[in-house]
Amino acid sequence: MHVTGVHHVAIICSDYERSKKFYTEILGFSIIEETFRAARNSYKLDLRVSDTVQIELFSFPTPPSRPSKPEACGLRHLAFAVEDLDRAVTELTAQRVQVEDIRIDEITGKRFTFFQDPDNLPLELYEN
């Protein structure tokens, strides 16, 4: 097997319109396609993160909560690469998104920070 990259990350949200607004208007991801699946009473929103990576945002009626704190076993967080971390933090805080203090990765020496989506999914900004 030869994996060539990450195609998409799938996220189930509790409030579709709120999460759609967060990922499109605050994070600036463009919509590829939006589909309502009547049989599931569910939306699937394909979002372009970059030329090669997408997010699939799903809604389902009453999805169960996922524990994230203390850190639960499984996917820990989703990290987005940015060229200018200070600018990205300024843009998020201007949209009233709480962002943690910027830290330095002790292994790579790169700067990073965390914030959360509307369902408290931990998201990271990692400076290239």
UniProtKB/TrEMBL annotation:
Entries under PROSITE patterns matching the protein: VOC
Pfam families: Glyoxalase
UniProt cross-references to InterPro entries, sorted A to Z: Fosfomycin_Res_Enzymes, Glyas_Bleomycin-R_OHBP_Dase, Glyas_Fos-R_dOase_dom, VOC_core, YwkD-like_dom
Gene3D superfamilies cross-referenced by the UniProt entry: 2,3-Dihydroxybiphenyl 1,2-Dioxygenase, domain 1
Record-level Gene Ontology MF annotations: metal ion binding
Alphabetically ordered keywords of this record: Metal-binding
Domain VOC, residue spans: 5-128
Transmembrane annotation, as ranges: none
Protein's recorded name: VOC family protein
Species annotation: Chroococcidiopsis cubana SAG 39.79
